[in-house]
Batch of 2 targets.
Target 1
Amino acid sequence: MSTGPSETEDAIALSGLQHLVFCERQAALIHVERVWQDNGATAEGNILHERADLPGADNRRGVRVHRAVQLRSERLGIAGRADVVEYHADASVPGGFRPFPVEYKRGRAKHRLADEVQLCAQGICLEEMHGIEVPRGAIFYGESHRRVAVELDESLRLRTLAAAQRLRVLIETRTVPRAELGPKCPSCSLEPMCLPNVTGGRGKASAYLAKLTMPREDE
């Protein structure tokens, strides 16, 4: 999503769990320092989300489809929004429909754990809101036009709970972890502000400053 964090006084942003699993420093810059910067990737993501971000509902082959659904979980202490929640007919649950969250992502399936944690958090919110088990959901990747099914199993739920707890600690202690330069850094919209090449390791900042102040050979 192109917008920054949307924490309320007692809840952290659901989207922050995806940020945290992708990179703790990115999560802290966004949700502690309130830094945000769009780039080409986030702009593409905005376009993909345009329809999903418009609140509304319709029916597709017997499936009720709700867009831009507001979510909240007291257990995780989070609040946010699901791109799409499908309600599939299921006579075994109260009301006859079971929620099925669908998260929209640009690109192809990569860094999937971060995406899956975000989806799992949505499922946990829906369970609390409806009192119905939500065992699975899906992630739609825009580049591949492919929907990937995700089982919201116990392992993923524990990872999601841990992510929520860790993000809350970072926010409450106003901690911004040290940068760790890695393959995902060039794709991050915050890379120009994070400066992992400069700050990602002991001595790198001082070495960078020393290089800037070294006299040139022609001086």
Target 2
Amino acid sequence: MPSAAIRRSLVSDQVFRLVCDQILSGTYAPGEKLPTQRALAAEYGVNMASIREAVKRLEQLRLVEVRHGDAMRVRDWRAEGGLDVVAHVLFRAGGLDRGTLESLLEARRLMLAEAARLAAERRTEDEAGRIAELAERIAEAGDDAGAAQRLDWELMALVVEASGNVVFALILNSIRQLYLEHAGLFQAVVSDSGELVPLYRRAAKAIGAGAGGRAATAVAELAAAQERRLLEALG
């Protein structure tokens, strides 16, 4: 890619983040008109190509609506946004929004518990065996937090796959990039993994036995323990 295109891309990224943060923070309210693209180009001192690229990304996230012959208007991201907005809300203005993080963790716990319930009813023998194997590999990871974290993600992804619920799978796919890009932030979910190992094993055993209620309870307890570790680590 030519260096000029790279520089333009970096500029459009900066413009996107600036406008995105203003919308998510409420500086621009839903329904409010944004400055014209030409006005934004003048305000930020960038070319129109960079503005158009930034606006296209804002449209894709359903943060703005662009109508021919009319100004750009801010959309209500809480009512119209999708999961692809989560990362931007979580890290708006360059910081970590704790309330959004707590909501994300709560949603994770509820989804994984229900996925475990369904997995116990629908899993194949091969899936049950792989889940049990992953639980033991987490136990063997010991103090290697990076390895334990990768195995934890793999196990939870397999539980969701075994649940047979395609919407759960798509939700997990939507947060995969967020999780992997900020792996260091989320590593505390497997801190003191030795204390979590019995919960991994309980969940794997319940799924293998086809005990949906026990599987859901074990995974809910595991996810709740992980939430506590992460939130305590963040202070």
